[in-house]
């Protein structure tokens, strides 16, 4: 389709300048020309020119110019002319062809279309029409994975994800910036949340083993049509944000399994501060040292089981009891009691949320 766009532009320019010219791809094959029978043939001069470091070259009856689009060598223009202004003519033709290619990408390229759907840049009423033009399925189950990696100057993370999901007709990989990549994955009818999580784990493990980089993944809600993809993406963003605050040890966070963190995240900060002041007297929380906080965290992880917690902390049971008594004296709450433990656990999460908001 892009070549047909080029051919149309080539004919119109030929009428204006009166000289023959053509365009080759990055291997020297002619993809558009004023001399139609040349299309599909290898242009030897252009093929040699591609291997040189020059961006423009003049010969007695011809000039050649490389056309870079978005920093990548895509095409070579050759103009059959000895006109004194042929260099300027070649420059103008190159600009016209570049604009035609960019217009084509914007209007017809599937990845660009899906990126615009993802970011909500297309009106809901236009999505169905554009999807039909591009032969993109509208009504099928999809899930959005937001993959956030460490900062890197290279696009290797994007390339790795693309190699894991090479089916361009079903799955779309969109590079947002040097840290964020989105995978819009089509899911089968019998595919459940466990399978969805497995794919996220595969991405993280592959990035870790192949590139030695850490990644976190937010999983959005299921999108049953293209209109829902933008919502799924926003949910994946929310999942990553809430996970970063309340479950920083996890590298996969599903929007459907955010628990009480989602509730706290949606509360106004004024209510959160009121609750925190109700549970802790001013300055009490700050007096708890890091060792004691680790003890509390491990105690909660083991469902308030004193024996198991002391075993995992490699301390005597009596030492743990002493620490819990110390916490009770500081805070007024006995964490061995279920109600007090709930209050303290929620208060810890509210404190994390308020600390994050104040950053």
Overview of the molecule:
Strand 7 and strand 8 form a beta hairpin. The radius of gyration is 30 Å and the shape is elongated. It has helices spanning 2-17, 44-50, 86-108, 110-118, 124-134, 156-164, 193-211, 229-246, 260-265, 269-279, 290-301, 306-313, 317-331, 338-357, and strands spanning 21-24, 30-33, 56-59, 62-69, 72-79, 142-149, 172-175, 180-186, 215-219, 252-254. Helix content is 51%, strand content 15%. The longest helix has 23 residues, at 86-108. The chain has 359 residues and is α+β, with helices and mostly antiparallel strands. The chain has 3 domains: 2-108, PAS domain (Beta-Lactamase, 2-Layer Sandwich), CATH 3.30.450.20; 110-262, 2-Layer Sandwich (Alpha-Beta Plaits), CATH 3.30.70.270; 267-357, PucR C-terminal helix-turn-helix domain (Arc Repressor Mutant, subunit A, Orthogonal Bundle), CATH 1.10.10. It has 14 helices and 10 strands. The strands form 2 sheets. It has a 5-stranded antiparallel β-sheet with strand order 2-1-5-4-3, with helices on both faces. The protein has a 5-stranded mixed β-sheet with strand order 7-8-6-9-10, with helices on both faces.
